[in-house]
Amino acid sequence: MNSLSDADDPKRVVERGYDQVAHDYARLKGESEWPRMRWLKSLLSRLGPGSAILDLGCGSGDPADIEIAKEHRVTGVDISQAQIDLARRNVPAGHFIHGDAGSVEFPAASFDAVISTYTLEHIPREEHETILGRIYGWLRPGGTLLISLEAGEVEGVISEWLGVPMYFSCFDPETVKQLVSRVGFEILETRIESQVEQDTEIPYLWLLAQKRYEKHSNPDKHKATIRWLFEDVWSQGNFEHVTRYLAPQFTFHFRGRTFIQAPDDLVPIVST
Predict the structure, then answer these.
(1) Can you give the pLDDT at residue 218?
(2) pLDDT score at 58
(3) What per-residue confidence (pLDDT) applies to 208?
(4) Fewest C-beta in 10 Å: which of 14, 45, 83, 191?
(5) Residue closest to 46 by CA, chosen among 178, 148, 252, 188
């Protein structure tokens, strides 16, 4: 590996590299079974149908976004135009954006889940905490995060990968977990798993986390959250998220019915 020189822009290195090897990378992913789909299916099992999911560093969209699009609304972002072109062909129902994961913008509370696999290690690690914080803001209360990145300590280097220069930068796994917790996530599951790439076994940190539910002391903010919970979350069948959020013994009206939130249940008590 070579140290990064002042003349090298890491993001341009990654963009050029993936533009050149987009098709080779698609074949690389088919060499052996990687853990990604098992982790993705674990995330999807937590969501109701029609959930909004962001894939940050989506690549060609195959296989992750193909799977997501079967029941959900997927938005993908990738720095490589070649990868975005492939994703649009592979997942016609998806919405794909050519952009930088470190600077792309979305409104707050836009997504039910965000995934970012094999991506953060191509971004300067000094940006990782900021990106995780922005993801936290894009997620709705109770939203889920799935990330993976190489399980190693790399300050920032360019090395040859699939025949092209590629940039790598990451913290050790314990530091990554600390960053995820520090921006506000609750870690649900994490593990280091290896996968084979070009006859080389590479360990990756996998981490599944959840945005914490926030309890509003301000009644107006609480009412706005309840309106969102029922008009968006419950209408998509994600009833568990509604019952987990509301404060015990809270009574309110929704679409002509009165509800009371007991500690472990949500019960309609009056129909009008």
Answers:
(1) 52
(2) 96
(3) 98
(4) 45
(5) 188
If asked whether residues 104 and 137 sit together in one domain, one would say yes
User: Residue 209's closest CA among 262, 136, 137?
Assistant: 136
What tokens does 270 get? 């009056």
Could you say which of 211, 234, 257 is where a domain stops?
A: 211
pLDDT, tens only, 48-92: 999 999 999 999 999 999 999 999 999 999 999 999 999 999 999
Residue with token string 């590479």: 202
Q: Let me know whether 150 and 265 are in one domain.
A: no
Give the burial class of 58: count Cβ atoms within 10 A of its Cβ; 0-12 exposed, 13-18 middle, 19 or more buried: buried
Same domain, 200 and 243: no
Closest CA to 44 of 118, 140, 113, 125: 113
User: Which residues, given as ranges, of the chain have pLDDT below 50?
Assistant: 6, 31, 216-217, 219, 239-272
Write out the residue range of the structural domain in which residue 181 sits: 2-211
